[in-house]
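During the no-cost extension, the postdoctoral fellow (Dr. R.K.) reprocessed legacy sequence entries with the updated structure-token encoder. One reprocessed record is reproduced below for audit purposes.
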Amino acid sequence: MNGWILAAVLVLVTGVGATLWGVAGGPLRRRATAQNLCTALACPVLLLLAQGYGRPAYVDLALVLAVLGPVGTLVFARLLADKLADDPPHARGPTWTAAALGAAVVGAVAVATGPGRALVKLLVIGVLLVGGNLIASRALAGGMQEGRGD
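Re-encoded structure tokens follow.
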């Protein structure tokens, strides 16, 4: 087992395990936030595993997750806006922690990858991962309800 795989296992067990526990039960605000954080933590795990096993296909999976994860959270935020308005989630600390972890993992894997097309793909994943996570968290907290018009 190399360092990349060990880091992936640590993130998987601590971060993703805790968010899956949060999704499994509790109030709606905790479940919605945990779902967003789970996708934000699973993407760095895929990047670490791609580097650890030498499988570039895992990077493609991370790209798909970086695109679809925040989109799914935005759909939940829109569909559950009325229920979340009564008790909006506020998870500023975990959101910024997940964003920092994603940026750190993308940076480390980018340094290990070196220049080329793979580096560009990693940087796109990093922007989508961090930006999508922050936008989706803001939408869950009710920060994007100005344009609803309902």
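Residues 28-53 form the longest helix (26 residues). The mean pLDDT is 87. The remaining legacy entries will be reprocessed before the final report is submitted.
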